[in-house]
Design brief:
Two copies of one chain form a homodimer. The first copy, chain A, is α+β, with helices and mostly antiparallel strands. Chain A is built from seven helices and nine strands, in the order αββββαβααββαααββ. At the A-B interface, helix 2 and strand 5 of A face helix 2 and strand 5 of B. Chains A, B: Keywords: Hydrolase.
């Protein structure tokens, strides 16, 4: 394919007509699986380069709705916990020539905006429910452990770092009700918090604070198949959704 | 003055050429005086209508720098504690026709953007150092008690409310080092926190947490002119700035 009929050209022409110039959305989609915090990344077609999912805001679309659309298209999920966390508004966020060369897109024809201010959102999703789906500029969409993320396109490593510190701050004092399946044990929830904080928590204090939060209810079932005495399952009370 | 030579027309023409369309900045500038939390508001020329200070982002200007500029122009302060707190991105944030009628601007000639997405920043400033300064669309700039704010133009009451809840969340677990003069007593700092939280705090717990934070140092002077035994003055350690 030569540069003159690259599908990205039509795409960016449409974006330029239908979307708000200078603005974009980047989505940091967090999942939790086998005691690892994970982020959904996309590999660009014909390259070994990865980035976060992203998109643009239609001229009459709410910014939150645009963010939901971006995350829905990559995960298949309709109901999402989505949190706006930061605007990345530096005049020069990254080396544009270098980045576009790495994407292998025909820069002269797709560079519709001299500069992009990105609104960062993070999503907390249930890992097992996600169907990772690339977009038409990318050929692979998959989970990466947060600790193993490669050098990303644009300033996306920085965006992941800011998302992670926002997530830590937000859930320093409340239990995270979004990344686990609907029924879980207290040790499973504790491991989620420990993974996000990057440090161990005292089990007794964690349990006490959790019960004091009043957000959980114990189910009558226990976790089957555990070697020790089977622990009770809990869920978040419906009003907390 | 008739609508055709209104100075706002030239202003919005310049903005349209030099600034990023669809985007604006709104600044919630908090001060603290006589145990009241205050916000700086502007009264629009020839009206009794008030709004927050705001402005636009130049095409090659960082968003943070634009926000600093907006706040500096209204306060005279160069060094500011400024915190981005939310993007107001609804497709229809307020009734445009009603708002423009209230501003008495010639809407047909100044309405350079069908829609504005606003990036909200709050600033924490030292009340006594501020020189409130209107811009050329407004004729009065002054402090209002947060509890007495009138119905504002645009969606600015909503923006103030979101700023206030962000401020409360941010300083739930750390002392606020930005709204008081450089030397202050512990009861003065406690009253600042109580005012922002809207509820009384236990003096002994407040003192204990404050000392545990390790951010304060006691000066050798005491507060003069107090009826009781003069309390010590404190300041934040320089590294905390």
């Amino acid at each position: 394919m030569n540069a003159y009929n690259h599908p990205a050209i039509q795409y960016y022409q449409d974006v330029s007509e239908q979307c708000i110039h200078y603005l974009s959305i980047d989505g940091v989609i967090f999942g939790f699986h086998e005691n690892q915090l994970k982020v959904l990344l996309l590999r660009w077609k014909g390259t070994t380069e990865w980035s976060l999912p992203g998109g643009f805001i239609r001229k009459t679309e709410s910014v939150d709705v645009a963010a939901q659309r971006v995350v829905r298209e990559r995960t298949g999920l309709d109901e999402l916990y989505l949190q706006q966390f930061h605007v990345f508004g530096e005049a020069e966020r990254y080396d544009q020539a270098d980045t576009w060369a790495r994407t292998k897109l025909p820069i002269q024809q797709v560079n519709w905006s001299e500069r992009t201010i990105s609104i960062g959102y993070y999503a907390l999703v249930e890992y097992s429910k996600v169907v990772p789906t690339p977009d038409f500029l990318t050929e692979e969409c998959c989970w990466w452990n947060v600790d193993d993320i490669p050098p990303l396109l644009f300033d996306h490593n920085h965006i992941v770092a800011v998302a992670l510190s926002s997530l830590r701050r937000q859930f320093a004092d409340q239990p995270i009700s979004h990344l686990l399946p609907s029924a879980f044990t207290v040790p499973e929830l504790q491991r989620l918090h420990e993974t996000i904080l990057g440090q161990p928590l005292d089990a007794r204090n964690f349990y006490k604070k959790l019960m004091a939060s009043g957000t959980l209810e114990r189910l009558s079932e226990r976790r089957a198949g555990t070697p020790h005495k089977a622990p009770y399952l809990y869920r978040f009370k419906p009003t907390d959704i």
